[in-house]
Amino acid sequence: SQKIEQNSEALNIQEGKTATLTCNYTNYSPAYLQWYRQDPGRGPVFLLLIRENEKEKRKERLKVTFDTTLKQSLFHITASQPADSATYLCALSAGGGADGLTFGKGTHLIIQP
Amino acid sequence: SAVISQKPSRDICQRGTSLTIQCQVDSQVTMMFWYRQQPGQSLTLIATANQGSEATYESGFVIDKFPISRPNLTFSTLTVSNMSPEDSSIYLCSVQDGLGQFFGPGTRLTVL
Known about the structure:
Chain A has no helices and 11 strands. Chain A has strands spanning 3-6, 11-14, 19-26, 32-38, 45-51, 56-59, 62-67, 72-77, 86-93, 102-103, 107-112. With 112 residues, chain B is an all-beta fold. In chain B, the strands form 2 sheets. In chain B, strands 2, 4, 5, 6, 9, 10 and 11 form a 7-stranded mixed sheet that branches. Chain B is globular and about 40 Å long. The A-B interface holds A 34, 36, 41-46, 48-49, 89, 91, 93, 97-106 and B 1, 31, 33, 35, 41-45, 48, 58, 90, 92, 96, 99-106, 108.
């Protein structure tokens, strides 16, 4: 069955360092992958989308990589700040907008001052 | 990106009753999606709603329990029928545009 794995342990990072979150998947051939931020009691906020033919995408302090051979995406936050503390979700889709997303369970990131 | 609103933002309901959740988008979209997020869990897709056709449900979800309406390109409703405490969740609608899939703020449902 399709499976998406994110590190379920909380990730503690010191302010100013780079936080790297991992998303691994099996039994899936996603057309694209999306990363979201979710704060307690709120809906997910879209951050970045990367397509299967893209290796890397950047947006301000965020960088996402997508390796379809390793079946892995890495999500980096550089110069991390306490305000970056949240749960980050990885989601995959097989289609071109006609499909809903399959989500990982998320990684809780804590940026310590 | 699309701006999505949901009503109600939260509700507390009695077992056996039904609740209809509304989702409004500020632009016309073809596909709308409904998700559920149970306490401490990630999001699970319930169904995909196209305007003018029946919703498509994911495995484990049925129309009798979660009827969906999609009367036009900016609006959809999800009804949670004959509720039980196991239906206590956050329910979210979302839409896809060229940039990504965007979510509403969610409806927090508690069933007593």
